[in-house]
Amino acid sequence: MTMDSDALRTDVLELRGDMDEVRDLLESATSFSTENLIKRQLAQLPTTGVRDGAQSWVTDGRKQGEGAAAGTGILAYFNEATSTWKALSDDADAAV
């Protein structure tokens, strides 16, 4: 089987395009930012109609060692099985 040079050139260009697309996907997957997350106080986050694993920045959520009502914010995910928001850092229920 022989391939003419135009067909080969087309295949190479398609492959380069695919590789660029893969590179872009990898770059976007490895650069995390909270800019696109929903940002709410814990009391404002829904507990019904939320997909399992949904994420949010809980603006008043407490990190370990922070006192009650002194939370500076945490990244949390929704656990559909328990209908609760959990701290991504340690799997504990999100608290304020």
Structure description:
The chain is an alpha+beta fold and 96 residues long. The protein has two domains: 1-31; 34-87, no CATH class. Helix content is 27%, strand content 18%. It contains one helix and four strands, in the order αββββ. It has a four-stranded mixed beta sheet with strand order 1-2-3-4, with no helix packed on it. A hairpin with a 4-residue loop joins strand 3 (74-79) and strand 4 (84-87). It is elongated and about 70 Å long. The mean pLDDT is 81.
How would you summarize this macromolecular structure in one to three sentences?
The protein contains 1 helix and 4 strands, in the order αββββ. It has 96 residues and is of the alpha+beta class.
Helix/strand order: HEEEE
Q: Cα-atom Rg, whole angstroms?
A: 22 Å
Question: What kind of sheet is the major sheet?
Answer: 4 strands, mixed
Oligomeric state of this protein: single chain
Helix content: 25-40%
Q: What best-fitting shape do the alpha-carbon axes yield?
A: elongated
Q: For the residues shown, what is the average pLDDT?
A: 81
| Tally of separate helices | 1
Low-confidence runs: none
Estimate nothing, just give the exact number of structural domains: 2
Class derived from helix and strand content: alpha+beta
Strand residue percentage: 15-25%
Strand order of the largest sheet: 1-2-3-4
Number of strands: 4
Distance between the termini: 68 Å
